Records
---
Amino acid sequence: MLARLRERSDAENGFTLIELLVVMIIIAILMAVAVPTFLSQKNTAVKTKATANIKQVVNAIESCATQLPSGGYTDATAGGLNCLTPATLVALEPALKSLGTIGTASAAPAANQYTVVPVGSQGYAVAATIVDAGDNMTFIEHHSSTGELYKLCGRNMAPTATTSGPVTGSKTCLTGKW
């Protein structure tokens, strides 16, 4: 009996073309479902990281401001301490070094860069730029000198912006705000 089982004909060896096609179709269907889900989760993770890092920079700025006698973000009497300069923020909060580039600019920052910009006499804006669908998307938390708070998201925006239009073709900036 064992001898007969070992003696298979050539037609019984391997898989048929139909079996291989069925397996390929199943794999294609699984890929069609899994890949878009994975990509949307990746965009969500990048947005969450950028907005969390903005919060970390804002917390460092506010912590620095509590150390100044004037209660503002700059103070000439405290040795010229300026809470809105990257060097001061990194010195007070060493964890900010891990964010990468923190700079001061008035134009839209480069991808994966965080920007701190003074706004008026007692305001500031913190911006983070990420790459989304090949474009630079900027997330901004803008604290105006009159006390208003703006949270914006847009394509290639200046860090001092207070409004943004609708953003088309973006997976991370669907409503223009975050």
---
Amino acid sequence: MYELLAEIDSLRREKHSAPSQPSPHVSFQQAYEGLQPDTSPVLTQFRDEGSAEEVQAWEIAAEEPTLSYRNAQDPPLPHASATSLPRALQDLSVSGEDVDACFQIFLQHYLSYVPILETSLRPDDCYVYSPLLFWTILAIGSMRFERDPTLIIAIGPMVMELAKDAVFSCKDVIATIQSFTLLCTWPMPVETLERDPSPALAGAALQLAINSGLHVWGIGQDFSRRRLNPGGQNSVDFRAKLWVNCLIVCQRVNIAFGVSPPVLPDTYQREKYSERLSATLTPSIEFQRRLCLTHSEGIITLEKTLNSKVSDAYIVALKSEIENIVSDLKSLRTRSPTSFDQFLLDGAVLQISCFHMLLPQSALSSETLFQLYDIAVAFAQLGAELDQKQKIAEHAPPFFSRIMFLASCVILRIARSSLREALDLKKGREVYFKTIILHKRLSIRHDDAYSRATVILSQLWSGKMIEAQTRRSAGQVRVKCRSRLGMSLLYDCWWYWRQEFQGHPDPYPDEENRSDESEESMALQATPTSTDFGNMDLWWPSYEIFTGTYAQDADSRSGGLGNLTELEPNLAPAYHSLQTLPSTFAAADRSEQFPP
């Protein structure tokens, strides 16, 4: 792998031999003081004062960030004479032509999701303002840069090195917050979730934002050592946009990792500012602000109830709170301006509904599981439709992929339970396979976490251990991992996968969750022979995960992956050898029966 990266860098240096030009460093205070209304808070200082570089006019066809999706063909990337200067990071050189192309991709396809920059942003101005922000934008744009797909592989680790240095720097704080917000929204490719720096970046961004006074309406005078020029309302609006987007991203990171999201009091909730804030934000961001606030407050409420198990009364309270929070979330449905916002809302409903899985088995009704299954199927189906129509796997913030994985785990676990005969198994299987394909499209590198997710989802579907555990639990859906809030079921499935396909021991060896001998035998014998699965978890690194057949021979199994090969004929060999499992569980009563 490292030899490949070295060869890529060598070829790129031969292609782009022009040296980068030095640029004067402009601090945050210089860039943001003295702004006038209707000017860009990022670029004004550079255009007025000039710099050591001769920056040519750089125009692109970029719309305002309205999150409107276009089916028309995108304009071609710039191929003629480059208007931006070539740049170098460590030993990596990027031509001005590629700089322009990556910035154009970012401004056209990514910025509308997190509108914290001007759509007229020029690469050279951005580099003068903040090298970290410049390389962050270039790296995100290079994720889908077809002219040089190796660029993101080389530049990703270098950008993270810049981010690491910025954490301990006291300069350009606002630019650092912008960069970290973008890096948390579109993380650089990593082999494992263990190496995902998003939680650290999100925490740093949020703390820097608070220390800079972004949570307070105004220009932040109370948080500065020097007198600040008010600069008109444009500066206030910029700070409001950055704060809201930063908070949304930080809340999503925590939700995805199954920990408490931050809910911080700010002055933007005051009545005298709320109308101005709504006018400042795009309709989509305003909706997502309300959605994330409702979702985060709901999670914290449920967590407090789960932590107060002093009597059986908490069961009734938890059920009631789940219903109330879901109702509050659904009340936002009429405000969702786009289908993608509706998709995010449905994901929040699913994640909150998964708190039912943390109830004692005696309190978990069949009807609740039926409803949860239907919610998961509908959410996964909507995600597949949006990807087909709007290509969300290519440019949308991949936060939704973790919730899609959760939906797949819900479908899998309930379909393996005694309720299976009363479920629409055909629909569940179809959207499960579509989720596998969506993760394949999310993948940027052959060894990143999304590539690994396709294999893990496939093997979970064909595995034996989940069904064996369900049989031991009398057909009930039993969750061992219970501390990851609404994401607990997802982490529980990952542990089943580790046990069966990596030979890991049961991490919950207490009396209630003790493994039997058949499960231990399964864990020892399930490792395929053609691939080193000891290094193929979402939490451990691997560089060769598509080099063999990943499923065991299952001659005795009935069924199969159905129409998966019809959906995507170019899948890796793993998908063509996986088998489904029959069920021996008794059918549950339900008023409406679905075909198997």
---
Amino acid sequence: GAIDAAATQRGNLGPALLGLPGLPTTPSDGPFSVLIIDDDPMVQHLVRGQLESEQFRVVSASDGVEGLTLARELRPTVILLDIHLPRLDGWTVLAELKSDPVLAQIPVIMMSVEEQRARGYSFGACEYLVKPVEPDRLVSVVRRAILPSAGDVLIVDDDESTREVVSRHLRRAGYSTVEARDGEEALLRARVLTPGLVILDLLMPGVDGFEVLRTIRSEGMRMPVVVLTGKVLAADEERTLREGMARIVLKGGTALDNVVREAKQLVMAKRVVERGRLPRILYVEDSPQNRDIVRRYLVNDYEVIEAEDGEHGIERAVRDAPDLILMDLSLPRLDGWEATRRIKANPAVKHIPVIALTAHAGREDQTRAAQAGCIDYITKPLERDVLLGAIKRHLPQNRPA
């Protein structure tokens, strides 16, 4: 897997790491493990440095055979896979991984200097990155593979600027987004990722939006679809879309706000049908700004109820029986430590896991939170992936439907 040297000098994969000595192949401490399969020592070096700085555990292999062996031994959380490898190429490795019942569920991210995105998706890769890869992009893709949101929105449009605008608007509303540049890529991504929602343009070269919708439904995919179009629809075209269970939003004016509104309604309805009621999370926080941020983080997958102080938090815990509580520690009237102690002393709600949220990172605060009964401790400012990861770890799996 060759890497663009000029791009490395520009910092695309972290130039500060170029002077580091050889790194071991054993993982460092961290919550998630990443296996890099790439024969280029420089790529291994740079990617390892970038991911370890984000607290990922990293293991590396220099050829396809070694990569498969490590995958079977370690069962990593995610795999980064180059195409051109000695002994066994990346396509063969990917096919072996996806045919193994034990390894098939591990997300595989292809990384190559060649643009073979469609082939990668068709082989089962969850993402395809063309080298050189920007560090932020690499970390973002790995995080999304490790902590996929059931609310991922697939945006399908041949116009790049439209995709970017829609994606940015949805991300601000708390959604994770993936993109497809045409109908063919859209179908490949829909089959691999099973997004929570598809936003679909109609007028695209090759496979148009009508054909994408027909294929999605004929293959039994039931995710909701919003058609975002500037086309004036004939009666038969509108009927075709309605029969495919698509919502229609016309471009222009308030279109982006309408898309977000449709996304919220459709994704929430889909979750309720598939999983019974949504997991209910009580967020106890006196800052309206913080409540708004966390609400956006959670809107895709959870029912969020809120309280602005410790006493109100206890009342809502008893009344609404949440599945999990996010507890700020610095609260008016009754602080988070005491509120948690009282919750844990109440037989009706003591089973509910409580995650402490605070701007103080001292060990004394962590100890106090644990003594009060908190199951985990997250330091502000909150990172979306860290928060969602903690919720998924501690949310009871046998909660009542």
